[in-house]
Amino acid sequence: MTRTYLQRPLAVLAAALMLGSIAACSGSATPSSGVSTTTSATPSSGASTTTPAQSAGVASAAAGPVTCAPGTDGSLTPVAFQLNFTAGGYNAGFALALQENYYKDAGLNVSIAKGQGSGTTAKLVASGQAGLAYADAVAVMQLIAKGAKIKILSTMYQTPTNAVTVLKKSGITKFADLKGKSIAEPVGEAPTALMPILLDFNKMTDADVKRIPMPGTAMTSALLQGQVDAILGSTDGYSLILEEQGAELVNFPFADYGVATVGVSIIASESFLAEHGDTVKCFVQASLKGWDAAIKNPKLAIDDLVKTFPNDTRPVLNTGQLKAAIALFCTNGAKFVGKAEPEAWTRTVDIAQKVLKLPTGLPATAYYTYDYLPQTLPTACPIQ
Hints:
Layout: E1 5-10, E2 15-20, H1 56-62, E3 77-82, H2 92-99, H3 102-105, E4 108-113, H4 118-126, E5 132-136, H5 137-145, E6 150-155, E7 162-167, E8 182-186, H6 190-201, E9 210-214, H7 216-224, E10 230-234, H8 238-244, E11 249-253, E12 264-269, H9 270-296, H10 298-308, H11 315-326, H12 342-355
Parallel strand pairs: 3-4, 8-9, 8-10
Antiparallel strand pairs: 1-2, 5-12, 6-12, 7-10, 7-11
Helix pairs in contact: 1-9, 2-9, 2-10, 4-5, 9-10, 10-11
C-alpha cells in the first residue's frame, strides 16, 4: 500500500496537523500528537443534505459517498482538530467522540488542540497553519470576504452564545443603559467582530461606549473588581464562571438584541478539503454522532471531556457550559443539529453585509457548503 503524509506546523498554538492519504478514510498512519483517536458510524435518522454552489476544486473533492472505517490492516488516518477556545462543556461532543472511539471506528486517529479564540483559530486556518478547526462563523466569514479560502462545513451553534454581561448591582437594566459605559472585549474571540452589529441593531455606535480589549482570562476579574462596567462574554462561558463565584448578573444576549447570526462551526481550508475531503467527511460524521450522544448523555460527555483534558476541566462548570450550548443547537430555524438552514445563512450574510461591510457580490453559498455533512443527520430538531 502506497502512503503519503502531510504535516503542517501549528506554530502559534504548538499543535501538529498531520493527515495521511485518504482514499476512503483509511490508510496507515503514525499517530498524531495530542489526545487519542476515535470514531464514526452511520447516523441514525435525519434528512438528506443538499449541496450549495462552491468552488470546483472543493466540489470535486466532495463528490460521491465515502466509507468510514479503519484500513484492512487496522491502520488509522491521523487528523488534528483545532478548537476555538479552551476545553469546556461547549466542545464535550468532540471529547465524547474521541473517548468512545467514534473517530477510531471511522478510521481516524484524532488529536484535539485547545484554542485561543475563534478569531485566532480562523486566522490559523486562513494562513495554512491549521486545516480543520472549530470557530465562529462570522469571524470566518470576514476572512473569506478578504479572500481566505475557507469553507464552513457544519454549524453547531445556530445563534451566538455571546452576551454583554453586567453585575446586577451596577443598576444597568436595559441595553440603552450601556451608553457611556466601558465594555471589556476578549482579544481574538468572536464577540469582538460581532459587537458593531449589536450596537447598530440597538441604535448605538462605537462612539457611545468605551471598548477595552483584554485577554479573555482577565475579563471576569476586571468586572468583579469594578475596572470595567461590562464584559463582552457568553452565556456558555464567562457568565457561568461569574455565577460560580457568586455574582448576580444581568445578561444582554446577542440573539435577543438583534444578532441572530449563525455561530460556532466546523471549518476547513479549501486546499485541505481538496486533498483530504474523504477524511473530513468521516470526521464530521463521527463528530455529529459524538454530539448526538452528548445530548442524550451529558454526564458521559463531561466524563469524557475530563479524560481528554484532565488538567483543564471543572465538571460542575463544564456541565453548565454543555447545557447552554445544547440550548442553541436548534434555534434560528434549524431542522437538524449541525446544519444551519439556508434561510439562516441568508439572514447572517445580510446582517454582515450591512454592518461589517462584507461584499454584496458574494452569495451566502460562498461561505458554507453542505457537501461534507453525512447524507443523514443523527439529531433532529427540536431536541427531545
